[in-house]
Design brief:
Rossmann fold; three-stranded antiparallel beta sheet; binds S-adenosylmethionine; seven-stranded mixed beta sheet; alpha/beta
Length: about 260
């Protein structure tokens, strides 16, 4: 299966994503929840690893991490980060789920990859074939603030409501139909987006919403000037997030030694 992700992630979007991650408590919060499972694992497959939000801290802790990532801009950023930190235990596989055969890993992780976490996604059916000990999924949960004011801006600028991704209950229902009863832990963390100035913030919304018109930019300038908050010499789009960590231990495979 080929994903659409490759075209979506431009180098500039990836740079913004990395910048938000560098001040986020996302990884620490997720890894704390799955610590009992992580303590039993040496290898992890991070599906849709992005620029390494979880791959990097996991590689600092475990023996080896495989990062599956279809976007070359994301994969490049992850490789840069791994090099900068001297991490040699990360294998980056450039591809989407289903494109490449993957060996078993102790843990399979998949965070915020909407198309894989839909209740009818083949990924949910197939994931048990590549994991030995367990699976952890992270997906948006109700209770987050309006993502980057999209609920307000979509109707005004694009003439349609912001759909947003489906939420974690649907994934849990999809798993139940497969006979999987996971532990579901809700987490709160910050995903604030920093900018150097108002013009950079306008660039962000223009790019994310695929806007071109200069008149729209003028509208955004006024809109954002009222909503962004001061952050040292720059500006910040505050974004408190809530997500669900959905995780379970896998059943041992026939002939596999446990413990
Ligand atoms: C929102 S980012 C999340 C990245 C990272 N997991 C995190 O939590 O920060 C979603 C990532 O999933 C990747 N992706 C999208 N579709 C995919 C698929 N079918 N298989 C694997 N990765 C996919 C995208 O390229 C993107 O890097």
């Amino acid at each position: 299966m080929t994903s659409r992700a490759g075209g979506f992630w431009t180098e500039r979007k990836v740079a913004w994503y990395r910048r938000a991650l560098s001040r986020s408590d996302f990884a620490r919060t997720v890894l704390e929840v799955i610590r009992p499972l992580l303590d039993e694992c040496e290898s992890v497959l991070d599906v849709g690893a992005g620029c390494g939000a979880l791959t990097i801290p996991l590689a600092e802790r475990l023996r080896r991490v495989t990062a599956l990532e279809p976007s070359s801009a994301m994969a490049k950023a992850l490789a840069e980060e791994a090099r900068a930190r001297g991490l040699r235990n990360i294998t980056i596989v450039e591809g989407a789920w289903g494109d490449v055969a993957l060996p078993r890993h102790d843990l399979v992780l998949c965070a915020h990859v909407g198309e894989l976490l839909r209740p009818d996604s083949p990924f949910l059916r197939e994931v048990s074939a590549v994991c030995r000990r367990g699976v952890a999924l992270v997906r948006d949960a109700g209770g987050s603030d309006d993502k980057f004011f999209f609920k307000e801006l979509y109707p005004i600028l694009l003439g349609r409501p912001y759909g947003g991704p489906c939420e974690h209950e649907e994934t849990v229902e999809g798993l139940a139909r497969l006979g999987v009863q996971p532990t579901v832990s809700l987490i709160d963390y910050r995903s604030d987006q920093p900018f150097d100035d108002l013009e950079e913030a306008c660039d962000f919304w223009m790019e994310y919403m695929a806007l071109r018109d200069e008149g729209v930019r003028e509208f955004l300038r006024n809109f954002l000037a009222e909503r962004l908050v001061a952050d040292g010499p720059g500006l910040l789009a505050p974004y408190p997030k809530r997500a669900a960590v959905i995780w379970w231990r896998s059943s041992p495979q026939p002939g596999e030694r446990v413990g």
